[in-house]
Amino acid sequence: MKIIKKALSNDGYTVKYLQKTKDNYVIETSYFNLDEHIICISSQIGCPMGCSFCISSTPIKNLIKKKSFIRNLTCDEIVQQVKNVINQIDNLNSKKILFSYMGGGEPFLNYDNVIKSIKTLSKEFINSRTTISTVGVSSKLMRRLANEDINTLLKLHLSLHSPDNFRRCKLLPKSKKIKPLLDALDYFSKRKNFISKVNYSLIKGINDSEEDAIKLVKLLKPYSFIVKLSKLNSFNNFESSEESRFRIFERILANSGIKTCRFSSEGIDIMAGCGQLMKHFYSNFNKDMTTILGIESTAHTFGVGIVKNSKILANIKDSYTTESGGIIPIESAKHHEKIKDEVYRKAIETAKIDEKQINAIAFSNAPGLAPCLLVGLKFTKELAKKLNLPVIPVNHCIAHLEIGRLTGAKDPVLLYCSGANTQIIAYAAGKYRIFGETLDLGIGNFIDTFARYAGIGFPGGPKIQELAKSGKYLELPYSIKGMDVAFSGMLTKLRQMLQRGYKIEDLSYSLQETAFSMLIEAAERALAHTNKSELLLGGGVACNTRLKEMARIMCQERGAKLFVPENSLLVDNGTMISYLGEIMLNSGIKISEKDIEKLDIKPRERTDEVQVSWKN
């Protein structure tokens, strides 16, 4: 059992995990970081109950062959499922743990394994308690549970959802008659000496009328239960009741002496409801839709990368260079046009695939130099039409960040240092937010412009790094405002000093020490501001060994972790485009073949303009 997907809700405390079993099936586990560490546990793969308003009971296509239920989880699988989540929790011992068996499946249909797992977990995690939620498949097993010898606080909840047997049978077709279930729940409560809860999801137009509330009062009057009212995660034609209906329902129950509480719907943005994320995963998963071609052409590099199931199969590129002077956009575009077919051919050969095995094409449509972007757009359209494939437009800057996943970074601050872009980026509230950036030149363009003044060809960065090795420090303007930086003043000073005859080695060394110190200072402030503990380097300038050294020292001093992809993934490349393209495709983001002509470039698109829906 291993975690294959993690979705963090915008609420900041709800996390949904997908975990894969050894036989390649998927289950869901939810975690809520509230007054307790709450772990919502699945007991089965799929669910056999057939509840009409629950997505868990609908057939899941592809991997599990249109079945809603596959098998029970073993005790070891249930325990490992929980431990995988616990290993993700910081400060585990800061509060109690609640193990809640109300995830995928009906716990009482896997009774023996559930009981064994409860006993195992209660021994290992002493500071814990357990709740089991059932739709009511067996009153006998509910009574048996009351007499189990379990060394932990154990509670039982019954999902009712209707006050009469006829409608309840329509909603929960495999559940038993209400009265014996309520009697069994009452028996359990008296044996355990606490008040049990009855779960009741208010469904618009189905079970939320005043008449329903009055019937529920009459049904529950002989018992001392608490009614837990909850919103429904909308599915098919079933919708949750409006707030006004909740209040009327609560008032009728309260006036009759029935205690109530609310169960709020957490993690709606990450499909935290039972079966939702798993259904979404399978709906977007197809064994054949795994090989993604990525095309990069934002500036001086034309690259083609091929990724299959997050594994890099090919990363081929060719870059426009000059002996002197900087990048000329139209000339760079001509370079791309000239070599694109050869780069594509080499990528296919390196990946050892036939082009017919490609299942989608990702391309960098933003931001970048318009002439260069247009070459990539044209080539993408040609291939997509030829191979009849969907297309995924990718933001180049975000691709630099997402490829950082390969380093093990989970939630980093990105120090993005490339030719035209210098930004400090982190994910927050559905987007990658820019916490700091250059106010004039990108760090790479700044270095290349100085190199051009000095008669050094393009790109200038590697040559400046080599010259700096034998230089000494000269004072230069240091311009940083909060987390924003500016390089134009330093560039002017460097040009003046160059004209006055200062050694190029000293100027190169001083440029690096000053400019990189500004970037690291801004990055450290961003780490403190966002309260994150991971710094990721991205962009071609991040290949510079001195910048990496400065970043490493800063991270060590503040107890943060530094993550740096290999140089071939720092510079512009097609692999980062295909890698992000695969992530986006698995989230359902694509342009179909029929809409390809609508595709266009966005040369000035900012990182924080992109809705990062694949993280939800």
Mean pLDDT score = 90
| Amount of helix | 25-40%
* Physical arrangement of strands within the biggest beta sheet: 1-2-3-4-7-8-9-10-11-12
Number of helices: 18
Rg, please? 30 Å
- Low-confidence blocks of residues: 57-66, 267-288
- The outline comes out as elongated
| N-end to C-end Cα span | 23 Å
Structural class: alpha/beta
Structural summary, described in words:
This protein is α/β, with parallel strands linked by helices. It has 18 helices and 24 strands. The strands form five sheets. A ten-stranded mixed β-sheet has the order 1-2-3-4-7-8-9-10-11-12. Strands 15-14-13-16-17 form a five-stranded mixed β-sheet, with helices on both faces. A five-stranded mixed β-sheet has the order 20-19-18-23-24, sandwiched between helices. Strand 13 and strand 14 form a beta hairpin. The longest helix has 27 residues, at 504-530. The two termini are 23 Å apart. Residues 57-66 and 267-288 have low confidence and may be disordered.
Mind sketching the topology for me?
Blueprint (H helix, E strand, L loop, with lengths): L1 E7 L5 E7 L5 E8 L3 E4 L3 E3 L22 E4 L2 H12 L10 E5 L9 H14 L3 E7 L4 H8 L6 E7 L5 H7 L6 H15 L4 E5 L8 H11 L5 E5 L12 H13 L3 E5 L12 H8 L7 E6 L4 E8 L2 E9 L9 H23 L8 E7 L3 H18 L3 E5 H7 L10 E5 L4 E7 L2 E7 L5 H11 L7 H8 L11 E2 L2 E2 L2 H12 L4 H27 L3 E5 L6 H14 L2 E3 L3 H4 L3 H13 L30
Parallel strand pairs: 4-7, 7-8, 8-9, 9-10, 10-11, 11-12, 13-16, 16-17, 18-23, 23-24
Antiparallel strand pairs: 1-2, 2-3, 3-4, 5-6, 13-14, 14-15, 18-19, 19-20, 21-22
Helix pairs in contact: 1-2, 3-5, 6-7, 9-10, 11-18, 12-14, 13-15, 14-15, 15-16
